[in-house]
Amino acid sequence: MKIIIDNGLGSSRDGISSPDCKLIAGRYNREIARAIREEFLHRGYDAELLVPEPADIPNDERVDRANRKAFLYGRHECFLVSIQIAKDGNGNIWKDKGGWWVSTFPGYKDDNALGEALLAAAKRHLKGRDAHHRNTSDYPPVEVPQYLLKHAQMPAAVTFNFYLDNEEETAFLLSSTGRQAIIDLHVEGIIAYIDEFYKKDWRYLD
């Protein structure tokens, strides 16, 4: 079983940042994704990055890469979690909207189970902060979660780790406590999903 970690954005989109430019989404996503992968390797799990290079990769290329993994390992033998940060406006001013959520594609039962496992871990590690699960019907069809989740030929979920234009949430993400909470919730949520669903033979029945 292979864990595939996607990191949203890249160096070619470094302009997507908090209003004070202290949090650059593409760099932060990659730091978190690398840390998650390293923790899985340390624990003996097979994990890899979907986009190891620093440059941004288009959505269709991300999906192609993921689906090549599904073809290689089998669509029931791998799954994808994409790390993202949300924004409410153009990123130039602080705004009030906030919260953490995980997104999955409606009707995909394995995706839903993965999303629920990540949400449960988020609620443990983000106590006192808003965390919820939503499906991609909440988005226009051209947006990242809709495209990635709809076309990936494996269980998949996208986490949105707060808002980069929410001043308090940006400070939390940049703190050592916040950074570790984001890493831990992904690791623990994914392991819970593996333990609860990936080891049950009934999952492999169509």
Give a description of the structure.
- The protein is an alpha/beta fold.
- It has one domain (2-204): 3-Layer(aba) Sandwich (Aminopeptidase).
- The protein has 6 helices and 6 strands, in the order βαβαββαβαβαα.
- The protein has a 6-stranded mixed β-sheet with strand order 2-1-3-6-4-5, sandwiched between helices.
- The longest helix is centred in the C-terminal third of the chain and has 23 residues, at 176-198.
- The model is unreliable at 201-206 (pLDDT under 50).
Would you summarize the structure shown here?
By secondary structure, the protein is of the alpha/beta class.
Key phrases:
single chain, 206 residues, alpha/beta, Aminopeptidase, six-stranded mixed β-sheet, 6 helices, globular, disordered C terminus
Topology:
Blueprint: E1 2-7, H1 25-42, E2 46-49, H2 59-73, E3 78-86, E4 100-104, H3 109-125, E5 131-135, H4 144-151, E6 156-163, H5 167-174, H6 176-198
Parallel strand pairs: 1-2, 1-3, 3-6, 4-5
Antiparallel strand pairs: 4-6
Helix pairs in contact: 1-6, 2-4, 3-6, 5-6
Radius of gyration based on Cα positions: 16 Å
CATH architecture: 3-Layer(aba) Sandwich
Secondary-structure-based class equals alpha/beta
Q: How far is the first residue's CA from the last residue's CA?
A: 18 Å
List segments where confidence is low: pLDDT < 50 over at least 5 consecutive residues. 201-206
Give the helices and strands as they follow along the chain. EHEHEEHEHEHH
What is the top-level CATH class? Alpha Beta
The portion of residues forming beta strands comes to 15-25%
Strand element count: 6
Number of helices: 6
Overall structural domain count: 1
Within the largest sheet, what's the order of strands? 2-1-3-6-4-5
